[in-house]
Design brief:
The structure holds two protein chains of two kinds. By secondary structure, chain A is mainly alpha-helical. Chain A has 14 helices and no strands. In chain B, 28% of the residues lie in helices and 25% in strands. The chains are: A mainly alpha, B alpha/beta. At the A-B interface, helix 8, helix 9, helix 12 and helix 13 of A face strand 5 and helix 2 of B.
Chain lengths: 274, 268
């Protein structure tokens, strides 16, 4: 691998010669856009704990898939979706969901631990699920990510207006006849899909870095929902691109840089807006 | 009945309502006419909000009938503007007030926001804010407004569109006496100038008393309705509560209800 030369253009060109870096940028871009948009609504709805819990459910599902010899992505998506439906049905109001989610979360993680103990030689798979492995993404994975990302955004756009209404004011939306239960359930499934594709980049444990931290900064800055989504995407993209670039030249994980950048930005925004 | 008001917009016959198996109240028969300003009074848990949920189509009567605008209540009725009882709005959100008012237009629509649509909805929202004298709040985050300012904003949202009836759940809660008076005056002005019917749930009668056309008083599993002079008397409330209740008046005409319930006194 090449050394960093401080001549940014030639450094970028050197990095771009590697297929795995191109794949990482492509998948990272899709994930940053999806996580930025869905994450903004996760923050508006105060559902970040649910997003966190779904990523853990995904870990258990992926661990189970590996145990059965199936593609981990399938197990991941199956479990996050099932978790999403369960959470959506259990608690009617987003704000009252943390106890129910905590109960489901603990059980699912326990099952995940069981799967790990049943599978011999599982450690590296488990590690990449927990912390992400964006540099190991194949071009087929990029296509899967791209198509899943488009699907999530199409469904999101179709339900945008009632979703915005219920996210900002569920009581009034209900009074106005918006199907708040159905919208809440559908959005949970969208979170599950967004989590499933984000896990490849940042892993289960660091999902907050892409889904919540950029959106939390955006929520403090944006006067309109449209600008909120744009700011959230911008932060997620900037953090992903910068981190991939840095980690090409430094021997530290991409996930660390993404978390560090989004955390630092949130810190600045938090104190600048108070 | 009061001559300046029009036809009945709400009619209840032998209505019983409750949640779960417990009836909150029963045998309620009353009607409310177009353009009336109605106070929904009574102690906590007496089923005041339940009446709103019936009108919004969010709950079904246990027995009897209720009609609004001559038909059974249904969800998503665009002629009703609803302001629920609320807790503090998220202060972390910087979203401006105008966007919150604009949300009202999202009801019953799907798809993504289109720029033209947003521009039109924002100008309608600004007009609604002007109607309640709150256009200066348009670009401030809702979470940073005072309780009285927030109530004005929600009133604007409830009035935008084709609203013919306002359902206001405890809008006076947590307001000081001066803000209370200002908000009641504003609501009364809106009722008169736009010809809408307003139902307002309150704990405290006194700020409302000069403006109310009608009172719906829920207590002890029953409902009494009539003009304030008819309902807010020792006789009516004693028979409603089934115990001796006295309605006292001070020199400025303010009421105190004594003996109804521990800690349930109407006072300023």
């Amino acid at each position: 691998m090449t050394d960093f030369s401080w001549s940014l253009l030639s450094d970028l060109a050197a990095m771009w010669q590697y297929d795995f870096m191109q794949h990482a940028f492509e998948a990272g871009t899709v994930v940053a856009i999806v996580a930025g948009i869905i994450g903004y609504f996760v923050v508006l709805r105060r559902s970040s704990f649910a997003a966190h819990a779904l990523s853990h459910a995904g870990f258990t599902g992926a661990a189970g898939a590996v145990l059965l010899g199936v593609d981990p992505i399938l197990g991941l998506f199956a479990f996050t979706t099932a978790g999403a439906i369960l959470i959506g049905i259990l608690g009617r109001r987003a704000a009252s969901r943390d106890v129910q989610i905590g109960v489901v979360l603990a059980f699912l993680l326990g099952v995940g631990v069981l799967f790990i103990s049943l599978y011999q030689g599982y450690a590296t798979e488990a590690y990449s699920l927990l912390f992400g492995e964006i540099l190991g993404i194949s071009s087929a994975d990029v296509w899967t990510t791209f198509i899943a990302g488009i699907l999530v955004l199409v469904v999101f756009a179709a339900m945008y207006r009632p979703l915005l209404f219920t996210s900002l004011d569920e009581d009034i939306a209900e009074g106005k006849g918006v199907p708040v239960f159905g919208i809440g359930l559908a959005f949970m499934v969208l979170i599950a899909a967004a989590v499933s594709i984000s896990v490849q980049v940042v892993g289960v444990l660091l999902i907050f870095a892409l889904m919540v931290a950029p959106a939390a900064s955006a929520a403090r800055l944006a006067r309109t929902p449209a600008s909120g989504m744009l700011i959230s995407i911008g932060i997620a993209l900037a953090a992903t691109w910068t981190s991939l670039f840095i980690s090409f030249y430094l021997p530290y994980p991409v996930s660390f840089f993404i978390t560090a950048i989004t955390f630092a930005l949130y810190g600045v925004v938090r104190f600048a807006t108070r | 009945m009061n001559g300046r008001h029009g036809s009945s917009v709400i009619v209840a016959r032998d209505l019983a309502a409750g949640y779960g198996n417990a009836a909150v109240w029963k045998d309620a028969t009353f009607s409310i006419k177009k353009g009336e300003f109605v106070g929904i009074l009574g102690p906590n848990g007496a089923g005041k909000t339940t009446l709103f949920r019936l009108l919004l189509g969010l709950a079904q009567p246990e027995r009897g009938e209720i009609e609004i605008f001559g038909e059974k209540p249904r969800r998503g009725n665009a002629r009703i503007g609803y302001v629920p009882q609320r807790h503090a709005f998220d202060q972390e959100l910087a979203i401006e007030t105008l966007e919150i008012v604009r949300l009202g237009a999202c009801a019953g629509t799907w798809g993504f926001d289109l720029p033209n649509e947003v521009r039109r909805e924002r100008s309608n929202a600004l007009a609604a804010l002007k109607d309640v004298g709150a256009e200066h709040l348009a670009h401030r985050p809702l979470g940073q407004l005072s309780g009285g300012e927030q109530q004005r904003v929600f009133l604007a949202q409830a009035l935008s569109g084709d609203t013919e009836m306002l359902l206001l759940d405890e809008p006076l809660a947590n307001l000081d006496i001066r803000r209370e008076g200002e908000l009641v005056q504003l609501i009364a002005d809106v009722v008169r100038s736009l010809g809408v019917t307003a139902l307002l749930i309150a704990h405290n009668i006194n700020p409302l008393l000069p403006f109310l056309d009608r009172v719906v008083y829920a207590a002890n599993g029953r409902v009494a309705t009539g003009t304030p002079e008819e309902v807010l008397t020792s006789e009516t409330l004693s028979s409603l509560y089934n115990t001796h209740v006295e309605v006292l008046r001070d020199s400025r005409g303010r009421l105190a209800i004594v003996g109804a319930e521990e800690g349930h006194l109407h006072h300023d």
